[in-house]
Write a structure and sequence with these properties.
The protein is built from five helices and five strands; from the N terminus they run E-H-H-E-H-E-H-E-E-H. By secondary structure, it is of the alpha/beta class. The radius of gyration is 14 Å and the shape is globular. Homododecamer.
């Protein structure tokens, strides 16, 4: 059983980019926390600055039989119909994740194209939102297995 944790543009700059919003935690630390929270669940953890690559990775998750996706589309959240369309094809649970609370930011960040097609949204927990999302995904997958 695997989950894919997919990260969009500029998240490779975590720890350096706007630390007053995103903190000082690096993406490598986020990945380690996510893997630790996953326990026995296999994690595919990726980051890209390219929209097409994020779409290809969603397709790969579909084709490989991944059980869940956790995605932080970053700036593509508000602009990418193609990423949204790819997520609509995924048959399992999808969690949209944001480090900051997008609803407390500038108006441009208030309307997520992804939120209408995902299972759940986590925003504003900082980098610790990642292990929270992994634990939540694990519980969702367990509930599916029981039901």
């Amino acid at each position: 059983m695997s989950i894919h944790i997919l990260n969009g543009p500029n998240l490779n700059r975590l720890g350096k980019r706007e630390p007053e919003i995103y903190g000082h935690t690096t993406l490598a630390e986020v990945e380690a926390w996510s893997r630790a929270a996953a326990g026995d669940i296999q994690v595919v953890f990726r980051q890209t600055n390219a929209e097409h690559q994020l779409i290809d990775w969603v397709h790969e998750a579909i084709d490989s039989g991944a059980r869940g996706i956790i995605i932080n589309p970053a700036g593509l959240t508000f602009t990418s119909v193609p990423v949204m369309d790819a997520l609509k094809m995924f048959p399992g649970p999808v969690i949209e994740l944001h480090i900051s609370n997008i609803h407390r930011r500038e108006a441009i960040y208030h309307k997520s194209l992804m939120s209408g097609v995902v299972t759940a949204v986590i925003a504003g927990l900082g980098p610790r939102g990642y292990p929270t999302a992994v634990r939540s995904m694990s519980e969702m997958l367990s509930d599916q297995a029981i039901g």
